[in-house]
Structure formats: C-alpha cells, structure tokens
Specification:
The complex is a heterodimer of chains A (95) and B (482). With 95 residues, chain A is mainly α. Chain A has a domain of 38 residues: Histone, subunit A. Chain A is built from three helices and two strands. Chain A has a two-stranded antiparallel sheet with strand order 1-2. The longest helix of chain A has 18 residues. Chain A is flat, with a radius of gyration of 23 Å. The mean pLDDT of chain A is 91. Chain B folds into two domains: 337 residues, Amidase signature (AS) enzymes (Alpha-Beta Complex), CATH 3.90.1300.10; 81 residues, no CATH class. Chain B has 14 helices and twelve strands. In chain B, strands 1, 2, 3, 4, 5, 6, 7, 8, 9, 10, 11 and 12 form a twelve-stranded mixed sheet that branches. In chain B, helix 4 runs parallel beside helix 5 and helix 8 packs across helix 11. Classes of the chains: A mainly alpha (95), B alpha/beta (482). Chains A and B meet through helix 1 and helix 2 of A and helix 8, helix 9, helix 10, helix 11 and helix 12 of B.
Chain lengths: 95, 482
C-alpha cells in the first residue's frame, strides 16, 4: 500500500485539518511506514471470524423517557470562543 | 516524616486519629511541588491556578488530596488534554469518577497532571506544555500518556493520582516511574467526563505508591453509571479484602511470545527474578501461548486511530477551546476554512498523524481492508486470552520491553514509539484488567515494572498477586533522589 501526498491531502481535507507542504511530505512518508507495518495483518486468515467492535456482551440500553435536568444555556456557552446571546457564532455560511 | 511522602491509607489513619489535618497535607504537597516540579514538570499551568482543592471532608478519605490527569473533567478547573485546541476549557460538570471521589471525601487538586496531547503517546513528549521528566533520571521520559500522574506520585508531588489507559497509558508510565498502576476491566469504571480517545478501549484507573492504595481507589471509582452505558451493572467487591489472601497454589501463566526479541536483557532478568519470587510464595508457573500477540500493535493502531478520528471531530473551534480566524471572507468556504485552520493550528503533530491515519482507515474503499480486518483480528486476540484463563489464574509479563528511554530518542520515529506499548496493548483490545507493580531496577537505577493480567472483572486476582509480591519485596519503598 502506498500513500501519496495527494492522498494525504485528500484525507486531511476529510478530517478538516489544514496541513502545510512540509507536514504533507512528512506525513505521507510516516504513514507509509505505519501502513507497511499494519499490512502484517494481511497474512491471517479471517474468513470465518466475527468482528469485535466491543468486548462486553451488552445490548442496547434504554432509559425511561422522562425529562431530566440539562445544562443551562449560559453554562454550555461559557467556553465558546465566540457567542451571541443564546447562540454560538461562526463565520457567515449563507447570505 | 513529611506528609507528602506517605500513602493515602497511612494518611487516612493519621487523619482518623486527629494527628494531622487535611490542609497540612495540601501544604506539604505545595512545598514539594515548589521544590521539584520545575525539574519534573509533572503538573501543567502552575502559574495560572494555584493548588485549590474541592472536598467534602466527612467521607472515608477524610480530605486526602488526589491529582487528576488533564483529560478528566473537573468542574471549573481547566481540563485541556494538554492540547492547544482545548485552550482555556473549564468543564461545566465533573466526571463521574470526580463526583465519586468528592463524595468519598477526597480533596481534588485544581492543578492537573501532564500528559501526551489527548493521550496520544508513550512518553509525555507530545504535551503542548512540554514533556514531563522521569524523577529517577531527568534526561529520561516518565512514560505516557499518564506520565505526569506517574511522575507526580513517584516524586511525592502527589499522594495518588488518576490516569487513563487506552493502550498502556497507566501501566507503562507506572513501570517507568516505579509506582503501581492499574487498568481496570473495560466497563468497571464510568468513562463519563473522560475526554474520549478510543471509546472501546479507554478506562480510567489509579496510579499509587502501593497496592493497598490502588485497591482503595478502585473501590471508590468503580461501579455502574447511567451516564455511561458501557459501564457494567454488577456488584463491586471490596478490593482491599483481596490483600489478605496468599497466592499458594495459584497458576501463573507465562506467555512464550512475550519473552522473545526486543526485550532489554536487564528487564528480562528482573522479570525472571520476580517470577521466581512468586514461585517461592507458592504460585505455580505454567508456560502458555498467546499466538496472536504479534498482531496486537497493528490492530491497535487501526482501531484506536479510527475511534480517535471520530471522537476528535468535535474539536472544531465552535463550542470550546481555540479558534483560528478564517482566511476566507464572505460565505465561500469561510466556515470550513475556520475548521481547518483551527484544527491545523490547534492539534500537535501526533494528534494530526493519528486523526489522519484514522480517517484514512475508515475512508471509502479502505474500511474492509483495514478497520473490519482489525476488528476480526481483535476477536482472535481476545480468544487467546479466554483460552489461557480456562486453566490459569493470571498472566505475568514485563510491563514494557525497556526501562524509561531518553527524551527525544523515539520522537521522530512513530513506529518505534508505538512498539514500546507492545506488552500493554493486548489487555485493552481484550478488555481485561491489568496492573503494573515495581519489581526492581536496572544497573543505571531505572525502575522495572511487572505486569499481571487477569480475566474480565477479576481485579481481585490482580490485587491479591500484586500485594503478595509487594509484601515480599521492598521495591515500592525506594524513592528517587531529586
């Protein structure tokens, strides 16, 4: 598996991370090494094996549909880098 | 006797007899931090917020202070995961473990422990605030990611501490710093308020000066929590009861795969001596096989990074922490540009590497080849352990293949850094509990840790074996000279 600078750039965009040219170069080299190492997993026969996404044998856990206390708006907004009244503010998306 | 050097159970006894007061302990810790933390750097943001504590002194802990890793939410006290992207974040609520500690009478420290950014690392070098140092050798790393918690306990800058363990982040630094560190069974301790790294692997656990303190702290933080549906609803035993049992006749498994290439010869001989000691205490040794061990690190770096890339999507400069200004004006892409710049400037190199690797293995066309395959191999790794625990009581291994390495030694080689977790990662993949206890020193005076693993929800076995070993040795009493 080879990973080009273009692939890293594409994935970085999916992950919404801005990378500079130097980072792109270093990451494609390092990810290449890591993926070569990970490719060791190809040697195992996994055809009849079920995946483990979770080690506990638990099923969906439902709670009673009763309203409880939630975080008050001013507390939820207290850490916002930018806010206006009861809202988080972000750069303009639509006119 | 300086109060900061004592264990929590010793202090609780003294507090109970009214020989000392809680604020006296806090004061002795403050003095110690002032004296040595410019060298050890176990704590972060020291200038910004003094050592405030919050406590309810009427509980069983009687006001004994505790140190918390920077990724566990403490209401009103900065919790930044040692990342620029969470700059200034003051959680509006306490993690469940913190509420439990407060109602048990702990004095929760406002100063938080240093760590690798978002727990991504094995050395604490990835902290935005700069690396913590190993109290036994200041040129060496304390391990990671809970390196600050481990170093603070080892240097008597903390009585005890909480860390988190996703692939060894409690046990490996405990081993490097010569303290006790436990990763409980997945589901034993609520993860509510632990800022998530890899949700199917993360667990909060104690770092302490001895096994009794670890048992005591595990008693307090364990149990079902409606706010974490992966916390298991089952009775929590009194773990301190396990300390009364001997280990005569216990079957101790030694996995052949752990004693091969890559292990430091001094670590190897130290562990072999520890196994001999367990045998003189009445345990029986049995050689076993964990044939899929060699796949644990690659499986881990797929699953952990995939989950991390998803969990860290929430850090986008909108709700909390650092925001970079958008470079684009008007409506054309300015929001996305703000996200990308905030994340590009806010995350450190290792965080970016892991998020991008995780995004890649989950992306269209690669999911089956990487993520799904890794989950299937995870099943095989878990089965290996199930097989061994059919007729063995516990497994004994080194915690880490080497003692603490030098600062900077592995920083430019992520793969070598990842391999330093080779003995600890499997326990997270299989969800089983594991403890690291001090078992000796190298010729250069660096601590070595013995890892004990048991079947799910059998922490009692870990405390029993670890305590029997500790009582028969003096390693945990040796202190670093700072």
């Amino acid at each position: 598996m080879s990973i080009s600078k273009e692939t890293v750039d594409y994935v970085a965009n999916l992950a919404r991370i801005q990378l500079n040219e130097q980072e792109l170069e270093r990451l494609s080299r390092q990810l290449q090494g890591i993926l070569d190492f990970i490719d060791k997993l190809r040697e195992i026969d996994i055809s009849d094996i079920a995946p483990t996404s979770h080690i506990l044998e638990i099923k969906n856990i439902l709670r009673d549909d009763t309203p409880g206390e939630s975080l008050p708006a001013e507390k939820a907004l207290a850490n916002a880098p930018s806010k206006n009244g009861r809202f988080f503010t972000v750069p303009k998306v639509i006119e | 006797m300086k109060l900061n050097t004592l264990t929590a159970h010793e202090l609780i006894e003294k507090l109970g007899r009214n020989e000392i007061i809680s604020s006296g302990i806090v004061r002795s810790l403050e003095e110690r931090i002032k004296e040595v933390d410019s060298k050890v750097r176990a704590y972060v943001r020291k200038g910004a917020q003094g050592c405030q504590v919050t406590s309810h002194k009427d509980g069983e802990l009687k006001g004994v202070p505790i140190t918390i890793k920077d990724n566990i939410c403490t209401e009103g006290f900065n919790t930044e995961c040692c990342s620029k992207i969470l700059d200034g974040f003051k959680p509006p609520y306490d993690a469940t473990v913190i509420s439990k500690l407060k109602s048990a009478g702990a004095a929760v420290f406002s100063l938080k422990a240093n760590m690798d950014e978002f727990a991504f690392g094995s050395s604490t070098e990835n902290s935005f605030f700069g690396t913590a140092c190993n109290p036994w050798c200041l040129e060496c790393v304390p391990g990671g990611s809970s390196g600050g918690s481990a170093a603070a306990v080892a240097a008597d800058e903390a009585i005890w501490a909480l860390g988190s363990d996703t692939g060894g982040s409690i046990r490996q630094p405990a081993s490097f710093c010569g303290v006790v560190g436990l990763k409980p069974t997945y589901g034993r301790v609520s993860r509510y308020g632990l800022i998530a790294f890899a949700s199917s692997l993360d667990q909060i656990g104690p770092l302490t000066k001895d096994v009794r303190d670890a048992a005591l702290l595990t008693n307090i933080i364990s149990g079902h929590d409606v706010k974490d549906s992966t916390s298991v609803d089952m009775q929590v035993p009194d773990f301190t009861k396990s300390l009364e049992k001997d280990i005569k006749g216990l079957k101790i498994a030694i996995p052949k795969e752990y004693f091969v290439e890559g292990m430091d010869p001094e670590v190897k001989s130290t562990i072999e001596e520890a196994i001999e000691k367990l045998k003189t205490l009445g345990a029986e040794e049995k050689q076993v096989f964990l044939p899929n061990t060699r796949y644990a690190v690659p499986v881990y770096y797929i699953i952990a990074t995939a989950e991390a890339s998803s969990n860290l999507a929430r850090f986008d400069g909108v709700q909390y922490g650092f925001r970079a200004e958008s470079g684009k004006s008007g409506t054309e892409g300015s929001l996305i540009d703000m996200y990308k710049r905030s994340r590009g400037e806010g995350f450190g190199q290792e965080a970016k590497r892991r998020i991008i690797l995780g995004t890649f293995v989950l992306s269209h066309g690669y999911y089956d080849a990487y993520y799904l395959r890794a989950q299937k191999v995870r099943t095989l790794i878990k089965r290996d352990f199930d097989e061994v625990f059919k007729d063995c009581d516990c497994i004994v291994t080194p915690t880490s293949p080497t003692p603490a390495f030098r600062i900077g030694e592995k920083l430019d080689d992520p793969l070598r850094m990842y391999l330093s977790d080779i003995y600890t990662i499997s326990a997270n993949l299989a969800g089983i509990p594991a403890i690291s206890v001090p078992c000796g020193f190298t010729k250069k005076g660096l601590p070595v840790g013995l890892q004990i693993l048991a079947k799910p929800f059998d922490e009692e076995m870990l405390f029993r074996v670890a305590n029997a070993y500790e009582q028969a040795t003096e390693w945990h009493k040796v202190k670093p000279k700072l």
